Amino acid sequence: MDYSISEIAKIIGSDSLLPAPDSKISRLLTDSRSLTYPSDTLFFALETSSGDGHRYVKSLYDRGVRSFVVSGSFSCSDDLQDANILYVESPLAALQTLAANHRRRYNVPLIAITGSRGKTTVKEWLNQLLQADIEIVRSPRSYNSQIGVPLSVWQLDKDSAMGIFEAGISQPGEMAKLKEILKPEIGIFTNIGPAHSAGFESIEQKCREKALLLDGCRCVIYNADDPLISGCVKAVPEMIGWSRTDPEAPLYICDVVRGNGRTEFRYIYKGGQSAVLEIPFEGEHELENAIHCLAVMLLLGINQETIRRRMESLTLVGTRLEVIEGVNGCLLVHDNYTSDFNSLAPALDFMKRRITPDCKAMVIVSDLMHDADTDLEDLYRRMAELLAIAGVSRVIGIGPELMAHKGCFGPESEFFASTEEFLHKKSTSDFRGELILIKGAPEFGFGRICELLEARQHETVLEINLDAVVSNFNAFRSRIKPTTAIACMIKASGYGAGPHELARTLQAQGASYLAVAVHDEGADLRRAGITMPILVLNPTVENFHALFADRLEPEIYSFDFLRALIREAGRYGITDYPVHIKIDSGMHRLGFLKEDLSELIELLRSQDRVVPRSIFSHLCAADDPMEDDYTQQQFDYFDECCRMLLSAFPERKILRHILNSTGITRFPDHQLDMVRLGIGLYGVKTMHDGSQDDLRPVSSLNTVIISLKNWPEGTTIGYNRRGTLKRQSVIATIPVGYADGINRHLGYGNTSVMVNGVKCPTIGSICMDACMIDVTDVADVKVGDRVEIFGENIPVDDLAEVLGTIPYEVLTSVSQRVKRVYYRE
């Protein structure tokens, strides 16, 4: 599917500079960190909420890229004289135009999936169900945005017989652009819910906007039992509105029976064709997703026996990329998404961003999923090439196909016929100080490999949703001017979540600063490969050389510390070192007063060792409307101090910042040059008036039930017989206690945890390593069931309220012995 750069220039209507007009382009790039094959790559310099792609043109040029799409304001330097520069009004619009043209070039049947939930599962299940019959191209992972859809469609080529793509939107007007690119023949509307609703006036508006994708389709598949969706979907030649209540529906689902991890149901299609099917899942969402897939198979005329056999063999779609601490200083990246060639590149890209100079990258991978006509020699040759380009130094391949094609890989590679053979022959001592991507097809059971290599086996896990971090960051970014910078607080080990993955995520998202409490926290981030500016808020260090060596920018709050810093900078020959001036505008904790500034300015101007990079202060009551007069006094005081300092350094750009998470929401007129994003980044609302309802919880503390006992009324539970049962009860023991960070005051029924959608109170006292909960009201409860301590269903605010404290304390109290798992969907 190679295009010449001159052909692309014509398609997107570019006013171009083409020193090499015949250059061939086969790859599109929007993120400079994902560069793999520079020679045939075209980079689109997108301007988004997370950054400006024009900043990376020169670095990409230095890495071998020679073709760029830029906005008209881009100034092309002499350094780029042999590069193909395509000027357009909007690089994003150009990307979408090119993708729409490419879609028309390969006019194959296309299925487009929209909705609030289940898009990726329906797409992957359709691929599982249909790949034996037809060559399918589909979205990588959940590439469903204004950028992701064009990149997905670009995969279409002469061998493609069908496309299956997701389409998601975050605000009105976006779906029309995706519809123009996709032009689907079959449209699926999975469901509608509150997720990602911040950009819409109502859920009704969101539903109407999503339904625009379906206009003009030959067939639309949707849940006719949902009145909102039914009211938004417009008539097309064929409507398959499935129902579990209306026998007259085109696809009627009835006689649903669940048990033993399976669901059996009967369908009646168009009043005639009928059969009983079974899927290997019990969940309501899984049944809903399976019905959408069934409708597609019936529409395509696949026979009943084939449908029955394939439905029975469906496998769960793992959409998470997890980062887990491994044994012997290793870091594990576990990708439990589908394992085919197209899904390998995004996983390697995710891994590459975590490589540090002292950590080698290795991959444990299974045979790849593919269709029956695939040239296996070519497939595994391309796989080996991709791994080499990604910097993978060691490969462990598992499966008969990899064994048969091990000649494609380097001499350091190892191969095993099965996961069982790997587990039998390898031990944890074979892995040391490596970054390990673990990626296997479902049937290989690579979860057992993760269990072998995990550093902590504790059943209690603190899960950190990195997608929620990005969502919260962007939510606050939308509240401020594009020119206002954001400093993100990741002190106290990232509010208990662990700093490294948070820092990597925020660095990638375009945060201007990270802020830590002490020097050691900043040094730890530097060791983890974080390169962005880091502000140290309490720099009571004696080792100034380490501060300078790690490029950590200290807060200056006293003359003593400033003089010591200047003296040490002189000893090491440091000049123009950035520092941040703290003003005490009313917190009365640390900082200079207004009457100190004349002396401070004189001291700063008398030397060249340190220079002011910012001036800032801290609001002490931003969340309390009763104290707004005092807060305004803080603003006024800080403004006076800023004017004094800025007028003394007219030649320097000195950033001003005073707003915290609450201040960003309540006092937008005072955002100045930078804001500091703290607890709001972690999804904890400081305002409960609806103004922060777009925030998502980041941390979720979960465990599992390890024991179940039936006890009669009157039985006492726990130490000192403090818990007495008022009825015959089912009591579960869960392996989490005060040594894990569960405060003892949460016992005795003072809080509840969530089990299978039911809130279950604690019973008796919290023990060191365990506690007991009453699960009498949970249907079909069993050992191994997941228990949420806090997270999506149990807000951390609820625990804080019981304890008479603040969410900060609850989050930072989670013990380091609790395993942290970072994930992205």
Automatic annotation (TrEMBL):
Q: What class of enzyme is it?
A: isomerase
List the Pfam families hit by this protein, alphabetically: Ala_racemase_C, Ala_racemase_N, Mur_ligase_M
Q: Which residues, renumbered to this chain, carry the PTM N6-(pyridoxal phosphate)lysine?
A: 491
Stretches assigned to coiled coil: none
One GO term (biological process): D-alanine biosynthetic process
Enumerate the catalysed reactions: L-alanine = D-alanine
To which pathway does this protein belong?
A: Amino-acid biosynthesis; D-alanine biosynthesis; D-alanine from L-alanine: step 1/1
GO terms (molecular function) for this protein are: acid-amino acid ligase activity; alanine racemase activity; ATP binding; pyridoxal phosphate binding
Alanine racemase C-terminal domain: residues covered: 698-823
Keyword line:
Isomerase, Ligase, Pyridoxal phosphate
The EC number(s) attached to this protein equal: 5.1.1.1
One Gene Ontology CC term in the entry: cytosol
What is this protein's name? Alanine racemase
Organism (species): Duncaniella muris
